[in-house]
Design a protein that fits this description.
By secondary structure, the protein is mainly alpha-helical. Helices cover 70% and strands 0% of the residues.
Length: 228
């Protein structure tokens, strides 16, 4: 076994242990002590492979995105242009994320500053797929530029640029639409993470989808059936 293979195997062991804790006890119950106990390694070893606990939790939470990434290709296959594709991407993203709001919040609104340098962001996700190569699906191939970013603004910007290139929105409105959509999503996802709103998640999800679609309505240059 090469040094890289051993490194990836140990990282996988830590991530799998963290997944077990999240599934059995909840995200808030993850601790370095618990992860170390399950893996049989000491706490110092964890810091050899991860920047800190938040870094480990971030990569672990990416495992829970498998349903979204795997299903994205089929969910958007009927889109006839980039605008329809973007609408369906957001719709499916909301449906998946509002079922696990804590997980998606940890991935896309992490305390880690991966957005300061885009290559760090890219590196972290690339390494995740080295640890879990079986997670690479047809959706990954189609949407890899978007998937390989943790910055949700950058992910959405990729979709909006494609729409603008087809002259379905003005390029000058990309930043405005992006900010509006992400802020709507972030605010309603935050509401969904509150314990008192556990039974309102579907309502909050539908509200997010509706408001995000309304952002398109304000700026699209052609009619779109998915916005009616």
């Amino acid at each position: 076994m090469t040094r890289l293979e051993r490194k990836l195997n140990v990282k996988r062991l830590f991530i799998d242990a963290t997944m077990t804790i999240i599934q059995d006890e909840g995200l808030e119950e993850v601790s370095i002590r618990k992860v170390a106990k399950i893996t049989g390694y000491n706490s110092a070893t964890l810091y050899t492979y991860f920047k800190n606990l938040d870094h480990l939790i971030l990569l672990t939470c990416m495992k829970f995105l498998n349903e979204y990434i795997t299903g994205l290709d089929s969910y958007t296959e009927k889109a006839e242009n980039p605008l329809e594709e973007s609408i369906l991407v957001w719709e499916f993203f909301c449906k998946c994320s509002f079922e696990k709001p804590d997980i998606y919040k940890s991935v896309f609104f992490s305390n880690l500053d991966f957005n300061r340098k885009d290559f760090e962001n890219y590196y972290e996700i690339k390494e995740f797929y080295k640890i879990y190569p079986e997670e690479i699906t047809t959706s990954f191939a189609k949407f890899h530029r978007m998937i390989l970013k943790l910055d949700i603004y950058e992910r959405n910007k990729i979709l909006l640029i494609k729409i603008a290139r087809k002259k379905l929105i003005s390029p000058s409105n990309i930043t405005t639409i992006n900010n509006m959509q992400v802020l709507i999503y972030k605010g309603l996802l935050e509401e969904a993470t509150k314990p008192e709103n556990i039974y309102r998640r579907r309502v909050l999800c539908n509200r997010a989808i509706k408001y995000i679609k309304n952002c398109y309505k304000l700026f699209t240059l052609e009619e779109c059936g998915l916005l009616k």
